[in-house]
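Q: Could you fold this chain for me?
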Amino acid sequence: MEQYSITGMSCAACSSRIEKAVSAVNGVTSCSVSLLTNSMGVEGTASVDDIIAAVRNAGYDAALKKANANINTQQTLDADPLKDKETPVLKRRLVSSMIFWLILMYFSMGHMLLDWPLPAFFDGNHVAMGLLQLLLTTIIMVINQKFFISGFKSLFHRAPNMDTLVALGSASAFIYSTFALFAMTDAQLKGNMEAVMVYMDEFYFESAATILTLITLGKMLESRSKGKTTDALKSLMKLAPKTATIEKNGIEMTVSIDQLAKGDIFVVRPGESIPVDGKVLEGNSAVDESTLTGESIPVDKMVGSLVSAGTLNQSGFIRCEATRVGQDTTLSQIIQMVSDAAATKAPIAKVADQVSAIFVPAVITISAITVIVWLLVGQTSGFALARGISVLVISCPCALGLATPVAIMVGNGMGAKNGILFKSAVSLENTGKTQIVALDKTGTITMGEPMVTDMITANGKSEKELLSIAYALEIKSEHPLARAITSKAIDQNLQAVNVQQFKALAGNGLTGLLDDKTLLGGSYKFISEQLFVSDEIKIKSEQISQQGKTPLLFGYNGELYGIIAVADTIKEDSPSAIKEMQNMGIRVVMLTGDNQRTAQAIGAKAGVDEVIAGVLPDGKENVIQQLKQQGKVMMVGDGVNDAPALTSADIGVAIGAGSDVAIDAADVVLMKSSLSDVPAAIRLSRATLRNIHQNLFWAFIYNIIGIPLAAGVFISILGWQLNPMFAAAAMSLSSFSVVSNALRLNFVKMYDSSLDHKIKSKMSNKTKKEKRNMEKTLKIEGMMCGHCEMHVKKALEAIDGVKKAEVSHTNATAVLTLEKEVSDDVLKEAVANQGYKVTDIK
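A: Sure. Below is the predicted structure, expressed as structure tokens.
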């Protein structure tokens, strides 16, 4: 996406006009204009010159933004691209306008209504009073000439905007008042004092000046609030240091950050920020990565660890090699991602865009009709004009245009501060609409690396003896499970002994000689064929398998030493995160390539609603397609093989910064490996969507009520009559209130589950009843006693979807009550794994 800076926009009608003009350029596939950041994102093959020409022909100006390559330069560190340049200008205009406006109000309203004293020169000199008001109003109009230049320029281009409404309203009041002043002068010269007093009441100079002053006030408040919506992005831009200390030929020197190249060696002392992404070559430290991940606990770094730009070195001296610099650093990519998301539009904004495109012409038409109608019913031209002016200045297309982008920007910034990155406004909106979450097991629900969970000794051996012989064998193995045992042994400071004649028997186990005696390790099947294994150990081995763990048995010199259970352990926060999603009305599904028994055991521990086992990497995409038929699906994964499924899902989420491929395929990127960020992202999305609905509601209601009120519809019914000055005040506050409401998102408690609410199920009562009453009866051979019943019952009830199993060895049956459809093959496999045979299923 190419990003452009846009100048000259004042309301949603402007952004709609530019989008329409640029979208018509050959080669442009998509165009999104942000009124909030005064930027435009364009995708396609069209040339930069053609795009800029289209913007200029529409009455605005554009410039291609500089690439993010120098994200660490001084300009970027000062957050210059997002610096609030508009508010100081508007503040100066407002102060200047207020000075002359107060003088004008003293003469026009203070004297007439409150009888404030005037210089003797003005006593009875109504022409002088009128000329003074004309002069003061002219000064205020010159100070705020931008409204007239922009307004009439856009009118000339047949694309009227909010400035057009302000310019027309203020100019109409000024021209009519000037006409009244000349008419009054003529009447005074003719001595017609009655006519003079009539024309004095037709002065609307103060209305013209007040409209401009109050709308400048509103614009200043709006601009100031809009500046706060990009605070999160500004803080990210300020993270990286301006300089780095590099090491060349053993000599340290300080250089500008943009001079640091890939492969350079740099050093970071305690209290300093890390300048670029790198790999630790020397030293140990604790690094605060909260600025990128939102995780407050410092992360230990040692030789070989990776460090990221913008993070803070807290405790030790580290020497690193630069691996990614400039736009390639993690910090730069985060900034680019947040910036790109701000340049996109949420689907919900389309309604406001459609209305904004016709809003200003419609308001001008309503204003003209209002004046004509009041003149036809016999009202004075001054009264009719006041109603028309009120319609022009109370209408606010800005509130409509800002309703969505301000909420998107604040929501995006909140996510970025907590390590949750939404790639686009579409992903931020759709995340909250998720109905089904599909979780990849490895690395998402689990830690992603096997660990020793249990050690069960046999024949009076100690755990240290068991682990020692296991370490001696496994240190020579390259199997993933071996790493779990070697890590456990290293943690306990065990010394590995040298094993001779080591052999790895595929699918069975390991053998070797220690002091000319045989050392064995492997599965129950392999070990039981070599050594005597007691019934007690056999039962414990089966129990370990049923829990989703892998039992590894070890023996030495013809004697069994015991079992070491290894498993990919569930992350500490996974069960609670899954429970939170379920409490939000979301169905949680686990995808894994494991066998049914292991998958069911892990699924039960994690608390998921459904387990889909035996899914090969290339089969995940097909599963997602099937789930999408049941509702909006979010896929959460971290690996390369998850990329097709992430792309296929309605929302793809890459967790733990994942692989580069997974990040590219995902719609949302979670910087931490914590599953609790998934419900947090959903909460943030829902809060943002609620905020957008509120903004759109008030923007529409404001105009729906305000325009008829200004036109005088309620005068005959309720006696309500709106002065143009109060109409301008209302218009000024409307945009400010919308932006202020969006800023409330900064206080959203993303990790607080107390206010979660479930989405009501759309399942019919008939379907629910059918599901409650679903039963299957299995005929089973081989059951001999109550223990057999217990094994079969436990295996069947561990299957996802089986609510209850009533097993009888005397009747040779198992009657199942099902919560959902379970395939016969799954049931047969579960029973067969216990050593029995299913002969029939009804």
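A (continued): The mean pLDDT is 81.
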